[in-house]
Fold this sequence. Notes:
Blueprint: H1 3-7, E1 14-15, E2 26-28, E3 35-37, E4 41-42, H2 49-58, H3 62-68, H4 73-93, H5 99-109, E5 112-114, H6 119-122, E6 136-141, H7 145-157, E7 161-167, H8 169-178, E8 189-199, E9 202-211, E10 231-233, E11 237-240, H9 243-246, E12 250-252, H10 267-272, E13 277-279, E14 304-305, E15 312-315, E16 348-350, E17 373-376, E18 379-382
Parallel strand pairs: 6-9, 12-13
Antiparallel strand pairs: 1-4, 2-3, 5-6, 5-10, 7-8, 8-9, 10-11, 11-15, 14-16, 16-17, 17-18
Helix pairs in contact: 2-4
Amino acid sequence: MSSNTLSNLPTAPVNFADGSGPLLSSRSCIECRESHLNPAFLTFTEVPPEVVERILGNVVGPLELQRLSRICSRFRALAMYVMYGRVRSLLHQFGITDDRSFLRRLNHDGMYWAGPSLLRLLFPLINPNALPYGDRLEIHVSNSAFLQAGLFDFLLGCHYTLAEEYHGARRVESFASDELEYPHFGRTVKRILRFTNNVQGITKSVIVFVSKSEITGFLSITEYPTTLFMVYIDGINLHVVYPWLTGNSRGLVNLPFPGPAANANPPFFQRLSNLFDLKRRISDWPEYRFHFCEQNVNCPLRLRHQLDNRGSSIGCSLDHPDLRPYRRRDPTRIFPPLFPRQAPTLCIWRLRCCGSCLAGMPFPGQDVSHRGLYAARDMYISDHTNHS
């Protein structure tokens, strides 16, 4: 079925009539020349919800699920329920049974759950044991003592204990490279904490990345060594930063280019190459071979920000605004006082691998920076600057 057919009602999305052409909900009668309902017309609003939910549950591609969620409000709600079920199941595997409180804390405090653990939500047909780094959950938080204390108390309430803490540039990069297998990671990170818990006989870890910024923890997500890992949950939606790559099971390696010989075959590349199509340059895919640098949304030279509407998102929480039915406000109802929600902060980044894409500039000889860039309101860091 095509999206054009669905958007041009009264054309029916399901055609059970013989022959070709659009099937209208009403058609003129030859005898009385008046319009009558067409018995062969079937709208998706007449399909039982459990049937639609079963269909959506079998849709495993992230791009397809996001497209289906845009058909109508019912499909959007069902897609949210399907995604929330996957999120809830994943959190329970980490011993976090109060999943709604966890998602609310992410949304209220402006924290992000990101990284390779979320690939299970986007690709449920892949064997979870085949996906690497599935035993850890990664959270990105700003350098705010108040927000960190709330997160740590929540993790301690889920029986997690602080096992390791790394502070300073060298220790952060060493731990990220040796233990997490994230080479060249940590430009925007002030410290890393590892919490551990034994869940059903399996040791699970929660890695907390504390940003150098005091207002946002988002920029460390853009430091991941591949765009496949640049997927995050803000408590309401599941966001895919590079949907046209991730949705097609592709990942761009985000390492300095040209780089040292150690970058030739990093550990994460070996673990993911059997499951996903990884490339070191975006021009290695035929459809991007002749793209205009800094113009194509997937070009690593392009300056991106998280509010540019170039990513995709799918609701994954029961507290999503689209799931709340409208009701008139009761003037006698007293609302309990709440702390103000952490407002989203505009973050700008350029991928670390941008040096691999200098040949397709719109103007020959055009001067352009080939350094990774991470900027927020209180922070500006590039890959060639010293950091501590």
